[in-house]
Amino acid sequence: MSRSYKGVRLKKNRVYTVEDLRGTYKVDPNTISNWVKAGLQPSDSKKPYVFRGAVVTAFHEERRMRKSTQLRPGEFKCGSCTAAVFPDAATVKSIIVGKGTHMFSGRCSDCDASVMKISSQADRDYFAGLSNPNTPVDSRHEENGAVPGGIGSKSEIDISKLSLINDRIIYDWQDYAGRHSEKTIDRHLAAIRFGEELMGGKAFDQLTTRDVAKGS
User: For the whole prediction, is pTM greater than 0.90?
Assistant: First the structure.
């Protein structure tokens, strides 16, 4: 099934859990884990992870916009969901086509479509590392880094300038504010984010969050 996620609209100021993203994107937990390995930045290092809506949206936009010439080692451009993805390593095979062209094939980790790419030495080194049992799982994706946001003319926010330090407490506030209408919550969140900017991205406590929202 093609999954470009173009129809999914997260609210930029809201904070989402893994379960929230699962329900919104209709994916399993492994898919969210794959996104993190591919560069989706959680709001902090604590688990279970939480994610800023604007960051998740920018991550998917960036993957769709990336051309085949910009792929990182081990990454494929999926023709079905149009994203740059790291396939399930267990599905990757080395094949020879045409006049001896060396390629890799596999299955997209998002939509399970078949993906292929002409291999480079960097790709061969990457997949050789995956097959090495002595290579720690986390270090296999260290070279991926965080995917930069604010890419392209359609980006609403420069993700690189966002402070995510308060996202977890803001998620708790969202639960506290659940009795309000969606529009009211969005208005309060806009005020909270504005207050966050005025504080220069510093951390604030639960009382501060509620006070900022009430002052909107």
Answer: no
